Model the fold of this input.
Amino acid sequence: MMMEMEVMHSTQQDMDLIDILWNQDIDLGARREVFDINHRQKEHELLKQRKLEEEKRLHLMREQEKALLAQLQLDEETGEYIPRPPPSTPLQLGVTPLEVTQNGDFTQEAGDSMSFDECLQLLAETFPVEHTQTPSVCLDTPAVSVPASSNMMMSPEQPALSTATISSGQPTPSQGMSPDLEEAWMELLSLPELQQCLNMQMEDTLQTTTYPLPTSAEAQTPSYPNYPTVQTPIFNPLTSINNVTTNNLNVSPAELMNTFDGSLPTVAPSDAFRQMKVDAPQLDTSFSGEGFGGVFYPITEQDECSSRHGQEENERMCDSPSKAAFTHMDLYSLSPVDSMDRSKPNLTAEHLDSDSGVSTNGSPNARSPGISVYESGSFSYSDSEMEEMDQNPGSAESDYSEMFSLNFEPDHFMASDPASEVTGQPQQQEKKPKQRKLDIAEERGLDDAPFTKDKPKKRSVRLTRDEQRAKALAIPFTVDMIINLPVDDFNELMSKHQLNEAQLALVRDIRRRGKNKVAAQNCRKRKMENIVGLEGELDSLKEERDRLLNEKSKNTKSLKEMKQQLNSLYLEVFSMLRDEKGNCYSSSDYSLQQSTDGNVFLVPRIKKTFKSEKKHLSHL
DNA sequence: GAATCATGTCATGTT
DNA sequence: TCAACATGACATGAT
Done:
């Protein structure tokens, strides 16, 4: 591309240089037209014109699709669009002739068929196959054949929309797909019938061991005459699946071509073409690998697990306790050297951070946070841990260290991805950072420790030490399973697998530590809850104390007032008392006292004192 | 570099 | 008796 840009402004001298380069690179299959400015200008104009036509077609298709959707109604239960029954005529479900469907749930009428065919046409017209085929076929993104639904059933006389029409030739968004086209893709993918077909094909893919691969020319549908013939290597997912299980996945495009050549028409039975194959578009970084992975590439778990590419997803798939949990891990991925080598920039670094997921909060999805040591290029184990291993030669960790040395196969690992090394695989390298970001974001989303105080997690990528150990010892199940399985299931799992002493010790330690980790987290959570509860209780007690103090002060004040009132009343009453001569009683000699029945008596103080002394003397 | 916090781990007791 | 759980204490890494 760079070269092409330069050629656009080249001088004659440059053209001479190009001649030299052309002569040198002629074996690579480059054509002279590539370097011809006039030719490229014409090509550019043709592309513009074609693009305009495509936009017009797209607009027409949208209008037709809207008109079609107007005839449909959304089934609120299934979320599918079903034909709107004619208001005048009742439903004729029992009378209507059965349409040829592969899925009973997928009922279609003529409108659907028209729409879907039109959609296919839109697909075909939107992404015409180019003659210029990138030699680097995306090996790690196997396309999945799309089944033919009832109206998509393709007879041999009616060749299906070929794998080439969609998969190989169409530009990916990063290769210049306009937003309109991308939007059109999204609309197409959102069609229920298309998804239905995709799902059906996925089932067929799971059930069928081998499909004969139609040739590109055969796959051309006559319904779309605008399609140029594709003569480029097409990645067949089915073939790749077979290769994955038996051979090295990282085959060169030439090998792929050979593979296709060997599996083509002579072997293909005629009825095999009833299964129309619509390979998904060539995967690219932003278009298919992530967003449409579940739609276009429903690869079997086995296939995913055995694929080195997309290992992150593979491990997650394999880690699911329900199904693939007993699948042995890739020994290369289990090697600690694996981690070391993965730090190299041109290797499959996106597979580094595969985390089987240790439950950290009781929920199995939570991960143990940790910083990625891969990013720093260092080994997975911390220095302290390595020191610990060195200092405890008899410990289990020392055994793990011994196992590390056994798994040290750097050359093997380096050779695990020859295609990327040879070709450079620019699109894969472009994909890695995005993949990593997605993984980090995903793991952050899953990271929901119970004790976080809403602080954002930055340590989320690294494998936990136990996970690293488990990988190092090739434990054939996930740390998550080891920790969270019930004891019976765990014992059963142990009995099913022949583990050596080191593996058994590690598994037990992982289970103990994992459970204790969760217990510690729960303990701290409870402790925090207790603290919070005590704080609340303390606040309420403080409020209660304040209230009582306030009440006490009020009562004291009230009592004081009452005493004052009583005293003034006493003095008033006492001052009003007179003896026979009309003299006032002395307050020092007399006092007023109230009896229990409420009567008030004037008691002489001296007399009282005298009486009390007299009583005292009589007792003596 | 010390202080603080979050988390993992171990030892030990309890259920 | 054993597994699971609870918890104090300590270590470690991050901030």
